[in-house]
Amino acid sequence: MDPQPMKSPLVDVDVLDEPxxxxxxxxxxxxxxxxxxxxxxxxxxxxxxxLDVAVSDHxxxxxxxxxxxxxxxxxxxFGDLLxxxxxxxxxxxxxxxxxxxxxxxxxxxxxxxxxxxxxxRPSQHFDLQHRAMPWPFEIARVEQSISFTLPIALPxxxxxxxxxxxxxxxxxxxxxxxxxxxxxxxxxxxRRHPYRVGRMAVQLTPVLHRIAAVPARHPGxxxxxxxxxxxxxxxxxxLYW
Length: 241
Description:
The chain is of the alpha+beta class. It has helices at 18-30, 49-52, 59-62, 67-93, 168-176, 181-187; strands spanning 10-14, 36-39, 42-45, 97-99, 107-112, 145-153, 160-167, 191-194, 199-203, 207-211, 222-233, 236-240.
C-alpha cells in the first residue's frame, strides 16, 4: 500500500540576510576550540538530544551534566540569533515560543572536508529524539513536535534536504508489508528541498529525510546550520536541541 499524498511538511521562512550569516560564521569560527567533535569532519557547537541522550549510555553526564556551560556559551555569543529564531517561529506557528535552560538551546552542526557527503548516505530517519528525552517539565499529552534548520554557510555546490513525504504512521503501515526506511531509500527517490543561507526550513511534522549529498566537494567547503526542535506544552512551544 502506497502512502497517501500529504501536504508539504516543510516551510521556509527568512531569518537572516547574507551579511548576517557571514557575521554568525565568523563568531562561530572564533569559538572553534569549543566545538565538540562528533566524527571525521563533523562537529557541533552545543549539545543535541539525538547524540547526547538518545545514543548515550550516560545522558545525565553527556547532556544534563554539561547543559549550563554549553547553554551559557550559546546564549552569550548567539543570543541575538536565538531570539530572532524564536520570534520568527512564534509568528509561523501562531503560538508563543520560548527557551528553557533545563534543556539544550538550539546549536550548530558544522561539516567540513569528508564530513560533507558527496554521495547519498543511507541515513534517512524521522526526528523522534524527543521520545528518548527524560523531560524535566511536563509536555503536552498529545505529541506535537517540530524541527528546524537554518543554513548559515553552504558548500560551493549548495545544500539541501532529501525528503520522502512519508510520516511515521505511513512507515508503520509499510513495515507491516515488509518495508523499511532502508528499502524506501533504495526504491523510492526523494525530492530535494534546497537550502538557502539565512532561510530557515521548518519541518512541521516528522517525515522521512536525510542530509542531501553535494555533487562534489571543494577545498574550504563548510556546511554550517543552526539546528533545533520544538515540543509543545500547555503554554506554547519550547525550543531546544
